[in-house]
Amino acid sequence: xxxxxxxxxxxxxxxxxxxxxxxxxxxxxxAMRAKYAVVGAGYTGLAAARRLAELxxxxxxxxxxxxxxxxxxxxxxxxxxxxxxxxxGLSTSxxxxxxxxxxxxxxxxxxxxxxMEAGGFSCDLQRTGRILAAATPGGEAKVRATLEGARLHGVxxxxxxxAGLKAAIGxxxxxxxxxxxxxxxxxxxxxxxxxxxxxxxxVRLYEDTPVLAIEGSGPRVLRTPEATxxxxxxxxxxxxxxxxxxxxxxxxxxxxxxxxxxxxMDAADAAKFGEPAWGVLPAHRLGSTLxxxxxxxxxxxxxxxxxxxxxxxxxxxxxTERFRRRYPALAHVRLEYVWGGTTALTxxxxxxxxxxxxxxxxxxxxxxxxxxxxxxxxxxxxxxxVTGDPQEALQAAYGTASWIAPExxxxxxxxxxSAIERRKAGAEM
Length: 429
Ligand SMILES: Cc1cc2nc3c(=O)[nH]c(=O)nc-3n(C[C@H](O)[C@H](O)[C@H](O)COP(=O)(O)OP(=O)(O)OC[C@H]3O[C@@H](n4cnc5c(N)ncnc54)[C@H](O)[C@@H]3O)c2cc1C
Fold this sequence. Notes:
The chain is of the alpha+beta class and 429 residues long. It is built from 12 helices and 19 strands. Strands 1, 2, 9, 10, 11, 12, 18 and 19 form an 8-stranded mixed sheet that branches. An 8-stranded mixed sheet has the order 6-7-5-14-15-16-13-17, sandwiched between helices.
């Protein structure tokens, strides 16, 4: 078992640094008892805790977060969210399945909106649509397929040529793109802080409280550095860190990916980014994500590292190079914040979700899109525990994570596939 159950984050989260300081809740101390213990205060864990409190008002619910809220992956992401995903190149049966997933996606999105409204907090949520931009011929094929996918789903979209992209996002780096009108941008640290700070009164959140071990069965005992928590039902909402406890190691891979936000720019420089608010997703999965941040900053996300963090200097250099390649006129602008975050990938893109053993549940495998998906899966996990409903429709729609070969084959496989994919990604990176 690795010494720490938590991801190896070497730099603070830039989104969190942009917000005013927040006082974290104190760590758990002493011997504690709860009906429900949720491990992890990301989107999945907080949605589960909130739903448990709705279904059983007044129940004793404890959330144990190993870091502080705003420093986990739920804050370290790019802040793209959607109520309705547009998939590409779909057969009729795939369109039908994708529409079923979208009904769950909408449920998660609406749960986030409801929490924001009830809690009276905001996270700079803006309906910007999203642009898929292509810098290579392979990327252009994906753009065409996305246009077709949008047509099949009845999602409003428009094709963009190089000049159209230049007008929208201020660079002529890309050959073509598609803008789908569905899609939102948000400030992820503001969202996760807001969710954590407006939990129902029966939910006790403890931060800086890593769960180091889980012992026994019915009730289970969670061991942290300064506390033991006995709980009848335990939810592991730790995403890929669930592997620390020995679960689902044959389904999940941890990927570190990196983001940077520029320093605040003057009005003349900020005007070089085209429209006031936009987000660009890459046309290859190893490509770079771009977005504007407020009126005067810009974010770039790129790079992938398998199961281990990159050196901070290396990440900064690579992100700076990707930014300057797209905006050479802004070569004097520096990235003020650069940070890494983890995401849990599965072989077939499906999550691993549900009961692990009596009284023990988990949800993992966000595959890089867990702001909304994690919310749905956490909420539905709480419903399963309280009502006993196995959630067959949800399981049928998402599917379940497939088996991944053990070491050393998995590392070798990852290296081979990523070398091939990097070559294919080329200028999309
Ligand atoms: C750079 C980057 C960009 C991304 N961009 C997007 C995007 O634009 N849109 C999107 O939807 N998704 C995006 N993602 C993915 C998204 O961040 C994740 O899908 C999401 O955070 C998953 O939420 P979660 O609650 O399941 O897991 P997490 O957010 O990882 O939360 C799990 C929590 O569990 C805690 N934990 C782990 N182990 C323990 C333990 N033993 N004891 C106590 N606590 C523990 C962790 O500290 C963490 O806070 C991105 C990810 C990264 C890294």
